[in-house]
Amino acid sequence: MIACYHFVENGDIQFAHFMLGRKPQSMIVANKKKLILFFALAYGIAWICWLPLILSSTGVGLLPITIPMKFIVIGSFAPTISALLTQWLTERNLRIFRLDGSWKEILPGLLIGPILIAATFIVLSSLLVTKGSFRLWDWAILASYPLEIFRAAMMSAGPLGEESGWRGYALPRLQKKLGPILASLVIGFLWFAWHLPLFLIPTWSSSPVIVYALILIGLSFLMTVGFNLSGHSVITAIIMHSTFNASSSILGGFLKSAEVRESPSPEFMIAVAFIIAAFILVLITRGRLAFRNGPKAT
Questions:
Q1: Mind listing the pLDDT tens digit for each residue in 9-23?
Q2: Residue 6: what are its φ and ψ, rounded to 5°?
Q3: For the chain, how many structural domains are there in total?
Q4: Nearest in space to 190 (alpha carbons), one of 202, 205, 173, 206
Q5: DSSP H helical segments within the chain, as ranges?
Q6: Cα–Cα–Cα angle for 97, 158, 66, nearest 5°?
Q7: How far is residue 197 from each of residues 38, 54, 55, 82, 120, measured CA to CA in Å?
Q8: The pTM is what?
Q9: Is residue 293 part of a domain?
Q10: Which tens digits make up the pLDDT trace of 31-89?
Q11: Which domain holds residue 105?
């Protein structure tokens, strides 16, 4: 959890503006430019951090050095750092997401959100990729899900480093401007595009670029529903992201005895599952994706 404080600069003029509830003209940035600044920083910081890794022998091999894959962790915190920088530069505070939600408000999304991802990644994907009998699915392995989610949250920088930015900062603001469907599409696409340089590292992902894009765009709709159901809780977004990261290893064990289709590829069918789930959620919620007019996004 990020501690958030409001800072006041010294000086009579700054103090007077603070007391009157106004901001100096130099501190005012149009709302439409805040998101541009956030995404520009998120991309720039991450890509600069990842550049040595990509250029090393781990990536394209232009540098005669070997940098371990764990170097990715540094860039993974770019969305959160960018959100903090944007909020400070435009509002002179570090309040990038809500901190006042009650557990009663958070709990629906905290429960439903991870279930949506597990149902899509494990059950719906298995329905699409299984060639033989569904009776060979290993349901017992689902008992290890909570431990795998916890491990993903603690060991993977993605959920902790990204979600305060993508969902905590950007999503509420985009939903107010574009509505939940377009906001989910924009976040999903920009989330995918942010990862593009990592495809230059051969061992980073086994999914083709287009398939990865479809997965993240579909996943973005599920994340939006869970986030909205929890009253814009970043904790929910982190746990949902961790559930997604943990699901690939769970799926492998779930289908270890099943007959899996070789074509189309399992990765493609997982993407189809997430797109189907996104369409279902849009239909069920009548396009609202559990969005309610929440607290003002500053």
A1: 333 323 233 233 444
A2: -105, 125
A3: 1
A4: 173
A5: 12-19, 31-55, 72-76, 78-91, 103-118, 125-129, 145-155, 157-163, 171-178, 180-194, 209-229, 234-254, 266-284
A6: 140
A7: 19, 8, 11, 18, 27
A8: 0.86
A9: no
A10: 779 999 999 999 999 999 999 999 999 999 999 999 998 889 999 999 999 999 999 99
A11: 12-284
